[in-house]
Amino acid sequence: MIDKSKQSLIDEINKRVDEKILERTNADLLIKLITNADTLDEAINIAALGTTYKRTGLHFDKRLEKMGTTIKYFKKNEDLSFHSDDNKPTHKLIIGDNYEALQNLLIQYKGKINVIYIDPPYGKDSMGEFAKTNYDNAITRDNLLSMLYPRLQLAKQLLSDDGVIFCSIDDKNQAYVKCLFDEVMGEGNFVNTSIVMNNRGGRDYGGIAIQHEYLLIYSKNIFEYELNPIEDVDKKFQHTDDIGGFNLMELRNRNVKFNDKNRPNLFYPFYLNPQRKDSNGLYEIALEKSNDFCIEVLPSKSQGIQTVWRWGKEEKSRENLNKEIFGKANQNGGYMIVQKYRKTTKMQRSIWDEKEFVNERGTEAVKEIVGNGIFDYPKSVSLLKRVVELASNEKSLILDFFAGSGSLGHAVLDLNKQDGGNRTFILCQLNEKTGTTPNGIAYDVTAKRLKRIMTGECYDGTKNFKWIEKNESYGGNLDVYEIDSVSNFEWTDGKTPFDVIDETLYGKEQFTTTKEKIEWVCSHFDKTQKYLESKTEE
Q: How far is CA 36 from CA 28, 45, 144, in A?
């Protein structure tokens, strides 16, 4: 009988054949070699010979999932959790390895997360020899890719069919991480690579001052997703009427040429009544000539070529005549047909260059909430608020499994306050200890930040932080979970998996019978026993 680990390698080889990546004859040879390999390491090296990716050609050392005997599960931290308003959403902070957190989230949220944002640690290869990173680590690019790959696979399962995932990444790693996303999410689901101006002054090393990083955007299904237009708060209209403000847009389509075969339904006359003009200088028009005073107006020529209207005669023109479409005098002494334009939103551009998006704003926010010099390079709340605004609705579930200082949670709370929404965030953060966070990032930064901005006070009841002096607390509720473990063969009374796993933390009502609890645990927690093979070089 073939060892389970070897069988998983063989299954992967067969999958590559199905996906037309490997030829069957080559795959059969690899399978034979894997089967007869003396050690698992030897089998893995053999399987790596078939790791050729058909779309990107990207190569990296993949970490293999292995089945263990330890079940990972959520355990509520009652000391850090708090509830202040039953009418507001209950958000979640999960402290621990995000791979294990994602495995557990799949039990409740598979196919239900609407927006995912991540800002993974780029490591020492990312921003130059002397640049520090979000975390005090020394992650190599190969480790970055092999770390992200299985986590993206889990994240993809969590996304809803119309869900979108965003990933911040720097200039040096962008090409590699995009290839990885192409593999996992599918190149056909690529939406955009946006440029974010995160440092308007630039980092002054390397010969060119680096002012930007990238934001990769992928959909779960390119045919299902839809991004929202952004409210243009600076929008100013040139005219007003009984309905509100408006600008004028010429009804003529300058980009379409007219001939008998090309859009003949878009070429027809309007009849303007010069005796009927409103306070904005707009004339009444009709589709039929009503009297001898009416002036015929046709689409004018552009560079000698006859153009057409943007609307067909039998489409919206009739019902909107003299409500949204009017005549207007032009600069040449003639007339033109115009449409009232009332749109107050704008499409997001691929270059995100608002001043509030710079990392400096993120640093200022963390300084005012939890103190100076505690966390390096946090993202701007305004930047992440734009991400959420772009991809969510008022009831969306939003996940960040590299939560860092908790900026995404802050952004969700701020947007909910702005538009009255009930979006819910889930943050995952490893409690990594650094010189500035002796208790760990999750304890000293993430949880404290959320507690302070949501309740207006620290866990010890004090209110001595600057942010609250000029802001109102957001209110709401936070459940904090940590990841605990139990052996799957533990049968000590009160300590079995069926005793220690709390189903209510996974959105379930408490089971009334032991049989129901056993069936639920056995059918859902097998995947949380999987672990990633560690690498010798970190």
A: 12, 13, 32
